[in-house]
């Protein structure tokens, strides 16, 4: 079968069929998927009952994978999955539900804030691929916001204002919004802020987009309160309903999205009662968003 892509929203999101992710894909199929990602930014692959190894193999068709252990507060011995996976489930290393006051659970609540995966890394990520292995009957949805459409909808004055701004991204900023502020010295070093442009252009299509995330805590040259208020306004603008596709998960969906063109969040659900086993692989980016190589900040 040929790869078929059916839009799910006016500007963002499409269903991709005609592929079986349990088997190696042809170069033509990989190229068709990349074209779909360039245009739609989010692709949904339904009914893909795959293993971890098959997810890793499919993900590697699109580039080098990130090692994800540095993006959480799990300690040695607490990891349930391999280093190629970001474990955004609500399970501990033994497959049991995380307790309500578990530190890993509280840290992962930050995924309910609008964000772009690995914007706190340099270079930031290219694609995320999330496989839904066990899905609760009552959700939660994952929402995706089109950062290209959000940029296009800005007035000329705001476009000029944001064009050359540089922001600092860190997991400490996003988790701090939820009152999660206690970090060890090792974690502070691991989550050291990274500089990113606020406006970026897609390397294939050339379309400009806003590079927003709850991970932003600083705009260079701005007072912090003013910067955070401005970022909040931009996020409110960028997540208006007309820019958002809400994905209603079914068992064994695999959803793939372009972090260079989108922002996303998972919605709240009763994660102390119902298992949600979702496993994310992340394709690394190939360039920083700003020219400077030494992009870590003090």
The structural domain count equals 1
Note the total helix count. 8
Strand content: 15-25%
Shape: globular
Order of helices and strands: EEHEHEHEEHHEHHEEEEHEEEE
Secondary-structure map:
Blueprint: E1 4-7, E2 14-17, H1 27-40, E3 42-45, H2 52-60, E4 85-87, H3 103-108, E5 127-134, E6 142-146, H4 147-152, H5 156-162, E7 166-169, H6 171-176, H7 185-190, E8 194-197, E9 199-201, E10 208-210, E11 216-219, H8 224-238, E12 244-247, E13 254-258, E14 262-266, E15 277-283
Parallel strand pairs: 2-3
Antiparallel strand pairs: 1-2, 3-13, 4-15, 5-13, 5-15, 6-12, 6-14, 7-8, 7-11, 9-10
Q: Explain this structure to me?
A:
The chain is of the alpha+beta class and 298 residues long. The protein has one domain (4-283): Clavaminate synthase-like (Double-stranded beta-helix, 4-Layer Sandwich). 23% of the residues lie in helices and 22% in strands. The chain contains 8 helices and 15 strands. The strands form 4 sheets. The chain has a 7-stranded mixed sheet with strand order 1-2-3-13-5-15-4, with helices on one face. Strands 12-6-14 form a 3-stranded antiparallel sheet. The termini are far apart.
Quick rundown:
By secondary structure, this protein is an alpha+beta fold. It is built from eight helices and 15 strands. Helix content is 23%, strand content 22%.
Provide the descriptors you would attach to this structure in a database record.
298 residues; Double-stranded beta-helix; seven-stranded mixed β-sheet; three-stranded antiparallel β-sheet; 8 helices; disordered C terminus
């Amino acid at each position: 079968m040929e790869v078929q892509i059916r839009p799910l929203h006016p500007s963002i999101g499409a269903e991709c069929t005609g592929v079986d992710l349990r088997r190696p894909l042809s170069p033509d199929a990989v190229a068709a998927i990349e074209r779909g990602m360039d245009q739609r930014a989010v692709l949904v692959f339904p009914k893909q009952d795959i293993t971890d190894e098959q997810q890793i193999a499919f993900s590697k068709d699109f580039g080098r994978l990130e090692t994800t252990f540095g993006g959480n507060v799990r300690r040695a011995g607490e990891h349930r999955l391999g280093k190629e996976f970001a474990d955004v489930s609500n399970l501990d290393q033994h497959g049991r539900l995380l307790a309500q006051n578990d530190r890993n659970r509280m840290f992962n609540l930050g995924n309910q804030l609008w964000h772009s995966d690995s914007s706190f890394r340099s270079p930031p990520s290219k694609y995320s691929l999330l496989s839904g292995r066990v899905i609760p009957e009552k959700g939660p949805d994952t929402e995706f916001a089109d950062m290209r459409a959000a940029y296009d909808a800005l007035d000329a004055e705001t476009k000029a204002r944001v064009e050359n701004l540089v922001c600092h991204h860190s997991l400490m900023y996003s988790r701090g919004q939820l009152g999660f502020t206690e970090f060890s010295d090792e974690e502070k070093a691991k989550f050291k802020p990274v500089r990113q442009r606020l406006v970026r252009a897609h390397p294939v299509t050339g379309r400009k987009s806003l590079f927003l995330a709850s991970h932003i805590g600083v705009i260079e040259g701005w007072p912090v309160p003013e910067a955070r208020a401005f970022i909040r306004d931009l996020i409110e603008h960028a997540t208006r309903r007309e820019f958002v596709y809400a994905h209603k998960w079914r068992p064994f969906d695999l959803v793939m999205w372009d972090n260079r063109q989108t922002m996303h969040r998972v919605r709240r659900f009763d994660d102390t009662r119902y298992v949600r086993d979702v496993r994310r692989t992340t394709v690394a980016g190939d360039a920083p968003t700003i020219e400077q190589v030494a992009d870590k900040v003090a």
